[in-house]
Amino acid sequence: MGHGLHYQRVLQALPYLLGGAGESVMLALMAFLMALVLGLGLAIARMESGGGLRPAASGFVIFFTNTPQLSQIFAMFYCLPMAGINLSPFVSVLLGMTLNASAYLSNILVAGIGQTPRIYHEAADTLGLNLRQKYMRIIVPHVLRIMYPALNNHFVIMLLGTSMASIFGVEELTGRAYYLASVTFRSFEVLSITAVLYVAMSFLASRFLMSLRRLV
Fold it and tell me: Which domains are seen in the chain, by residue range?
């Protein structure tokens, strides 16, 4: 292949890499939205519930924030089939990322709920709102406003974390980069372009999400 850098063949395959980038964004977005809903449920359970639900939610968060995310995805992909549950690589990674992220998002939301002025809770009680109405109409909008930067940062972390999916055969950006490097023998060129794509994705995602902040 000769020495020196040769980007021509790699640039010709740019649409192939961009397709993988789209897969990465879709995976991160789906996992983030599902984790946000689950994380909110965990946060409310930890803040409001009694009986066994509060320790169960706390135990879930402790487990998923203190074990490697990659191990959790391995469990989804290799252990669930032993119980007769066969998931595709994409769904296994999506589920693993969702459960892991929900634990971290729960911590972010608990911190936000803890910063909510007490008068908000008292006003909801005065108006006779039930727990769901109180959170959906008063607490959650306030928490999203004050914790939005932290949630934004976590989405970018999840977007970069989608590279783990390549281990399980998902054709996201890193998976396609590895394949392209193996057939072109231009690893440096492929990986350098892939790095640029990751920087561009993270930057654009962060700017886009910050532009949505005024809607929250």
Answer: 7-215 (1.10.3720.10)
